[in-house]
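Internal ticket - ligand job 151, zinc ion:
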Amino acid sequence: MDLVTISTALSSLKSAYDLSKVISESADSLEQAEIKLKLAELMGALADTKSQISDIKLELITKNEKIQELENQIRIQNQVKFEQPYYWKITNDNRDGPYCQKCYDDIKKLIRLQDEKHGSWRCLVCSSYFRDKNYKEESFDDSDSPYNSYV
Ligand SMILES: [Zn+2]
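stdout (structure tokens):
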């Protein structure tokens, strides 16, 4: 929606108002056929206005949804803290997580990591693996593992 859409709707509404005024003020002097013609024009102008206002309504709904989505992102952004190699959500001294660094940086979604034990974590969405400070090389043989994050 832009200002042109609103201006067009207002213009249609003004046309409808002007037509109804003409019909109202000169009903006695207008022929039946002219009145019918003016009424048809009036109905057309009202239909245009209705359609344009409907477009504006849809656009406002879409914009409200987008605003809500952005507000949610800002709220989450203020709660999320990066601690290598993953994210934590911190609210009122509560720590929740850890969450996937790749998914949050890429699509702004907090995806909980699965504990693979021994300090390694896995994301079920993007399949990334993370090793935190508790990871020990001798925990298991990982010579062929797909781990992509190290501390
Ligand atoms: Zn991920």
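Auto-summary: The CA atoms of residues 7 and 58 lie 16 Å apart. The chain has two domains: 3-77, 84-139.
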